[in-house]
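Question (not urgent): is this output format expected?
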Amino acid sequence: MQNSQSAAFAASVWEVASRIGNNAPRIADDIMEAAFPLTCSQARAEGAHRMLRTGIISEVKRILRNHDDGPAQGDFAEVCEAFAPLVKDLRSKSYFAESAAEYVAIPDLIAEPDLLDDARRFMRRKGIECLAEADRLDALYAAVTGTGREAAPSARAVAA
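Got this back:
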């Protein structure tokens, strides 16, 4: 996709989001046929429409996460000076709130503490899930390499 097409797609994402909210699957469903008519018809003919939709949803999520509100988002000290250093250290400009089923911009999270609580709980739960998966990978690595207490035979030994 060329830069001008990317910009037009992002503009479409924000236009639809302003109407229906920051729900990536709903946004993708609303715009993908209009944005990529030939690609959608070809993907449908080849049985890849679901995969295309998944990719478009991923791109919509990226656009929603990385949106820069420009000057409106620049100074959180106006909300409360104590928030500025905390917001500056955040890695994203919006976070997913399950109760809203969408990404919510930081100023809106600050304005609605219930959404902020929802977003932080969601992020923490995802972090715990990632750590648990890392533990499972550690166990697999130990089994494959023969290190650790519960070491299983290495893949090479099993193949021999």
